């Protein structure tokens, strides 16, 4: 059995509660003293740091929403001075405003620690060759996996995403044993291998750590079969830390949460009430060791459930089950967060089309595709083709700049997109998850 930090991964529930209580109290004091936004929220609820005496008091604290990060953009929720922030990452927000996260030196070490646990749980160690095929940059995937692999002592191959033929060639030449990437990219690699005549048994690949987008059990089976590996599910949120918030072990029966760093709760998304163990609801996280951007009861909008029974692997941490959906309209396309409202803001800012649109998401050759159908006005409808082509090009460029991913833009006739009297249907997701 491969543990990275057996003390915490296999700690008794009572001991874990003591650790969590001590760290929670410290974190609540930190945000109250250093973050005006949190102080105001707590004051409005009539709560002082001294009122939080144990983990049981967590439910009295206010929630934090993604909107709070936008309202305080860029650094307003940071609880450490900027001269202690050694790195920032960011993820796309609903209106083009990104949600910015900051890390102190200690936060980077915590991140490396939880990622080392992740990789150890997937059977990696000092003799492993870990190919990181998540994107590097503002997205947390690449660098999060990279530092975790180095901390573990594995040999890290920082290929980033894309350039598939080179990725496969390095896998063969370097003897990659573990790969970290999106599940759809893993299937794409399998297809390319087939085309190039590379057989799975010619590689030394044993396991893949896949996340950053939703995927199904049937997709797991297909990846495992086609690449002849074990496929592990990893869960991450840039706001909480990045990848490493939870990950499966060899038994693949729920993702272990490093509870000495993140306290999970399941709440009723409508009422905000904490639900009992095993109930399905929205998962909420409180960070209890982060210094740069500590978050209190962060609403993830992801629907899941928690299991506190010890796992067959011997770990005693809470396990979260696969996310089954979301309470908002966010889509994850090729690992990027996309909101229909972002598309709306682009169309309104250009102002040359009708404000009616439809997002059609599909998966072709195991890669996500996005087509945006935009309705044109009757005046435009009679315009010459060149004018329409210019508008299409303009929208495509703005969408790519705002979303961070490419999309096919299709201009459609006036009144051809269905109208709704209730909540407008803006998305057709044809992916089978």
Major sheet size, sense and barrel closure? 6 strands, mixed
Output mean pLDDT: 92
Strand order of the largest sheet: 4-3-5-6-7-8
Span between N and C termini?
31 Å
Structural class: alpha/beta
Low-confidence stretches: none
- In DSSP terms, counting alpha (H) and pi (I) runs of 4 or more, how many helices? 12
Strand content of the residues, in percent? 15-25%
Helix content: 25-40%
Please tell me what the overall shape is: globular
Radius of gyration using CA atoms only: 23 Å
Count of distinct strands: 21
Characteristic key phrases:
alpha/beta; six-stranded mixed β-sheet; 433 residues; four-stranded antiparallel β-sheet; 21 strands
Structure, described:
This protein has 433 residues and is α/β, with parallel strands linked by helices. The chain is built from twelve helices and 21 strands. Strands 4-3-5-6-7-8 form a six-stranded mixed β-sheet. A four-stranded antiparallel β-sheet has the order 10-11-12-15. Helix 8 links the parallel strand 5 and strand 6. The protein is globular and about 70 Å long. The two termini are 31 Å apart.
Short description:
With 433 residues, this protein is an alpha/beta fold.
Please give the structural blueprint.
Elements (H helix, E strand, L loop, with lengths): L5 H4 L3 H22 L1 H10 L20 H6 L13 E7 L7 E6 H17 L7 E4 L7 H13 L2 E3 L6 H11 L3 E4 L1 H14 L10 E4 L6 H11 L2 E8 L4 E6 L7 E2 L5 E6 L13 E7 L10 E7 L1 E2 L11 E2 L4 E2 L4 E3 L2 E3 L1 H11 L6 E8 L2 E9 L2 H4 L3 H19 L4 E5 L14 E3 L4
């Amino acid at each position: 059995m491969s543990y990275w930090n057996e003390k915490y991964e296999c700690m008794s529930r009572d001991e874990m509660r003591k650790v969590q209580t001590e760290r929670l109290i410290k974190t609540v004091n930190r945000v109250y003293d250093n973050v005006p936004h949190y102080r105001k929220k707590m004051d409005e609820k009539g709560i002082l740091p001294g009122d939080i005496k144990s983990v049981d008091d967590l439910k009295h604290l206010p929630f934090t929403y993604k909107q709070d990060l936008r309202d305080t953009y860029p650094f307003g929720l940071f609880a450490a001075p900027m001269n202690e922030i050694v790195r920032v990452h960011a993820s796309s927000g609903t209106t083009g405003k990104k949600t910015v996260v900051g890390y102190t030196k200690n936060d980077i070490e915590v991140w490396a620690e939880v990622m080392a646990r992740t990789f150890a749980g997937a059977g990696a160690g000092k003799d492993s060759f870990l190919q990181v095929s998540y994107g590097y940059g503002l997205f947390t995937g690449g660098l999060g996996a990279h530092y975790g692999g180095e901390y573990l002592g594995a040999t890290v191959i920082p290929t980033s995403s894309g350039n598939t033929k080179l990725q496969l060639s390095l896998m063969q030449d370097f003897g990659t044993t573990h790969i970290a990437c999106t599940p759809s990219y893993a299937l794409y690699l399998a297809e390319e291998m087939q085309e190039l005549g590379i057989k799975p048994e010619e590689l030394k690949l044993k396991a893949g750590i896949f996340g950053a987008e939703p995927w199904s059990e049937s997709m797991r089976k297909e990846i495992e079969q086609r690449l002849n590996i074990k496929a592990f599910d990893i869960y991450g949120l840039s706001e909480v830390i990045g990848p490493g918030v939870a990950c499966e072990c060899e038994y693949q029966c729920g993702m272990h949460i490093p509870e000495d760093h993140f306290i999970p709760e399941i709440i009723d998304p409508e009422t905000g009430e904490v639900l009992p163990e095993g109930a399905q609801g929205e998962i909420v996280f409180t960070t209890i060791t982060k210094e740069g951007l500590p978050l209190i009861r962060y609403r993830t909008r992801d629907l899941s459930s928690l299991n506190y029974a010890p796992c067959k692997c011997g770990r005693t941490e809470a396990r979260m089950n696969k996310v089954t959906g979301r309470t908002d309209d966010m889509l994850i396309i090729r690992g990027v967060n996309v909101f229909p409202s972002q598309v709306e803001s682009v169309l309104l800012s250009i102002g040359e089309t009708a404000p009616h649109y439809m997002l059609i998401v599909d998966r072709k050759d195991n890669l996500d595709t996005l087509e945006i159908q935009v309705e044109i006005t009757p005046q435009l409808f009679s315009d010459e083709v060149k004018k329409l082509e210019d508008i299409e090009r303009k929208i495509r460029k703005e969408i790519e700049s705002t979303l961070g991913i490419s999309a096919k833009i299709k201009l459609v006739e006036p009144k051809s997109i269905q109208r709704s009297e209730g909540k407008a249907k803006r998305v057709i997701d044809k992916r089978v998850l």
